[in-house]
Structures are given as C-alpha cells and as structure tokens.
Amino acid sequence: MYTNFRMTKKITIIGGGNLGQSIAHGLLSKNYNPSNITITRNKIELLSNLKLKGLTVTNNNVEAVKNTHIIIIAVKPYKIENVLQQIDSHLKKNAIIVSVVSDYSIESISKNLKTKVSIIRAMPNTAASVNESITCLATQNASKEELEDVTKIFDTLGDTLLINEQLMDAATVLGACGIAYVLRFIRGMIQGGIEIGFDAQTATNIATQTVRGATELLIKNGNHPEAEIDKVTTPKGCTIAGLNQMEHSGFSSALIKGIKTSFDNISK
Predict the structure, then answer these.
(1) pLDDT above 80 for 267
(2) Structural domains of the chain sorted by starting position, each given as residue range(s) with its CATH number in brackets
(3) Which positions make up the binding site for NADPH?
(4) At what angle do helices 238-248 and 251-266 cross, to 10 degrees?
(5) Binding residues
(6) pLDDT of 195 strictly over 70
(7) With 70 as the cut, is the pLDDT of residue 4 above it?
(8) Secondary structure element (H or E) that encloses residue 86, with its range
(9) Binding site residues for NADP(+), as ranges?
C-alpha cells in the first residue's frame, strides 16, 4: 500500500456515484493533488463536498477527458456504451481507459472506441473510501508502465491484485458484493449481541472490532481460518456449540449459495 502518492498525472472519474466518490476520497486521503482530479455527474450538486476539496466537478464528460491521462469510468453498465462513444474522439493518444463497470469486457470497450488506447478493467469496492479496498485489475494491451501507474492509483485505496480477465466477474462477486455479505454478517452479530444483553452501540463496537481482529489474524499469521478457529474451540465449550448450531442451520451453505447466486446473476 502506498503511503506517499506522488504521481502527478491527471485523472478523470466519469460517474460520481458511490464508487466514483469512494475512489476520489481514497486518492485525497493519500494527498493526491485535488487539482489533478476531475469527476463528473449529471447532478453536480451531489458532488459539492468534493468541489470544496479542490476537485474539478462537471457534468460535461467531453471536457472532462480532454488532456487527461487516466480516465476511470464508473457509470452504470447500461450507460457505458454511450459514454465511450461520447468521449471517443476527444481522448489523448496516450490515454488509459480504466473501467470499474461490472460485467463489461475489455473487448466490448474496445469495440466502442475508434481511438486506440490502453484499456484496463478494475474492480475495487466501496471500502476504497477508507483505503481498505481489494482491487482486481485485468488488461490485454496496457504496457508495464501503464499498468504500474494504474496499480499505484488503486494501491492508495487498499490492496491490488492482477488477475485474468476471465475471473473478473468472480472478483466482482467476492470482492465488491462481498462487502455487503460481510456487513450483513456483522449486522447479525450485533442483533445477537443485543439479544444477549448489550445495548446496540456496545454490541456494534464489540462486533466490528472482533471482525477486524479475525481478519488481521488471517492476514498476519497466514493461517487457514480453521487453524484460528481451533484455537478458540475447546471440548464441550460454548464456541463449538455455537458453531455447530450455525452449521446445522446452514450457515456456510447459505453463504456459499449466496455467492454462487450472485455470480450466476452477473454472468447472465
């Protein structure tokens, strides 16, 4: 993860929704020069907080991409073709298109551009706004230097992995949709905590720190989850009793089925 981000190339984010804004906030938190960032949205009043921080805010995609090195497209899937055709003739020859649009291939992007540019797909998640995203990158024609530049951007938002594009839908489900899965799990922990006696805020504090601690155990120790589970499950203890009850109720199976259902939905 980069702690000092010094790249000075201009970045335009087309689509200032939740993910687009998360990327912008992540860059700002690593002291990226706000004057080098442009972000677009039809309702620009919804970007007033970023404008106050020094970003260029506009609803004109064509103007936004002129003289821009890296264009991050963060619109809804049904809008991307129109956006690509709109900006095509206004792209710099050395521009890099970075798409964070789910289920839209590099080949499809290329077909909608007459201008030959480097194309990279990226799939971060909304934890980018707190620099804890996992971003998967895939490319077919970007140079090593171009890939390094884009990696630097997303490294400011968390961790970055280079994957085969065929796995991008799977990355979307596990990494991006996965935020919602984990939050739903945490909500369940909080509700259980309230039922056994804690007030909502205390239950939230305990649950969130417990999840953070469990994650750090896996990251720092490099163990399989079951190895860490074994450390807290004693014979006839309360932990194994609770785990077994969850499994009898289909806990792991429901999670796996949910992930597979999301994947099947995105792949249709």
Answers:
(1) no
(2) 11-163 (3.40.50.720), 172-266 (1.10.3730.10)
(3) 61
(4) 50
(5) 14-19, 61, 74-77
(6) yes
(7) no
(8) helix 80-87
(9) 14-19, 74-77
